[in-house]
Amino acid sequence: MARLLGKWQRNKYVGVSLVGKTLAVMGFGKVGSEVARRAKGLGMHVVAHDPYAPADRARAIAVDMVTFDQAISTADFISLHMPLTPSTKKVFNDETFGKMKKGARIINVARGGVIDEEALVRALDNGIVAQAALDVFTEEPPPKENKLIQHERVTVTPHLGASTMEAQEGVAIEIAEAVVGALKGELASTAVNAPMVPAEVLTELAPYVVLAEKLGRLAVQLVAGGSGVKQVKVIYTTSRNPDDLDTRLLRAMVTKGIIEPISSSFINLVNADFSAKQRGLRISEERIVHDGSPAEPLGSIRVQISGVGSRFASAVTDSGEVSVEGRVKDGVPHLTSVGSFDVDVSLEGNLILCRQVDQPGMIGRVGNILGEDNVNVNFMSVGRTVRGKKAIMAIGVDEEPGKKTLRLIGEVPAIEEFVFLKL
């Protein structure tokens, strides 16, 4: 499309400035979203229409999702990236062209059949469409007598698609980068058998993906016996429309965090749902709207496991679930609650949770025990219900404490229970 726009700007018929012009992207898949990204860089206002594209993909690059009629009636340029289906066949016809802004320019790099070619000729002749750029036709190769090929206000290319040198080079680089990323264990936005998440949404969700896995890992380690987990509920808070929040990736990572510590299986985005089903693990989800910045896709994630006992009684809520909650702060996952207790500890390294009588000196005493074992404390937080009553101390540690060190922590008189958790 960029090549066609460049050719238009050099065209003897018209010199078009793109800055401030509206581009309607019809079909907001991978190609459509990339076109939108580049058009934004050219200073264009971009709207998009795609009944199947998630709104968060468009929001991530500041594109407005609109209806079909809104798109075609407001656009100066219309770029087509939709598949050819019974519902899209000749969707651009006399009626459609009649709704367009006079002087609009249309680009078709999708499928020829989505445009009624005779209707486009009429729209060009009567001035509704100022110019057209076509890479595809209903019949390919088009016959010499095709009126669009002969039309002086039509720029055509022979369905170049992925056949250009630039496209071939780009695909090769993309494949190499995807392989390297996969070997490093990074998330792949193009895996065909994993939850499909656009690259821009994947970038936005990346820290929440880490948080989701670690919360799952924490929750299952708090369960007595671990393997008895059958019912899990994941609760997301968001300031966005809950219907726009695609949580498939996050659910897969919670599943990974829950299953791996209690099995010999390696869980990934591809097999997470299948592995959960094999083990009789049912994961339900709930989305709750809260007041917050719409720039952040999520406020918090809570993982609740029901119908189980706990190694750490304080992790059990009044309604009987083992519960942990976290949020992302400055790009770093944090644990923010355990059971009914509020805490604030970075989820890096490993974690020690202690329930104790709320009294002076507890932080120093436990810190000294860890220091004697050369265990570095990277974060510490204390949450309590009422002053002088019960409190939970959450301690982030870089190393795994020895058995003797853990025994000494448990022997501190004011500590009623504690648990060591691997992240």
From TrEMBL:
Its main location: plastid. One of its GO terms (molecular function) is NAD binding. Keywords: Chloroplast, NAD, Oxidoreductase, Plastid, Transit peptide. One of its GO terms (cellular component) is chloroplast. Residues 351-423 form the ACT domain. It is an enzyme of class 1 (oxidoreductase). It catalyses: (2R)-3-phosphoglycerate + NAD(+) = 3-phosphooxypyruvate + NADH + H(+). Its EC number is 1.1.1.95. InterPro entries: ACT-like_dom_sf (IPR045865), ACT_dom (IPR002912), Ado_hCys_hydrolase_NAD-bd (IPR015878), ASB_dom_sf (IPR029009), D-isomer_DH_CS (IPR029753), D-isomer_DH_CS1 (IPR029752), D-isomer_DH_NAD-bd (IPR006140), NAD(P)-bd_dom_sf (IPR036291). PROSITE patterns: ACT, D_2_HYDROXYACID_DH_1, D_2_HYDROXYACID_DH_2, D_2_HYDROXYACID_DH_3. Pathway: Amino-acid biosynthesis; L-serine biosynthesis; L-serine from 3-phospho-D-glycerate: step 1/3. The keyword Cytoplasm does not apply. It is found in: Plastid, Chloroplast. Belongs to the D-isomer specific 2-hydroxyacid dehydrogenase family. This is phosphoglycerate dehydrogenase. It comes from Amborella trichopoda. The lineage of its organism: Eukaryota, Viridiplantae, Streptophyta, Embryophyta, Tracheophyta.
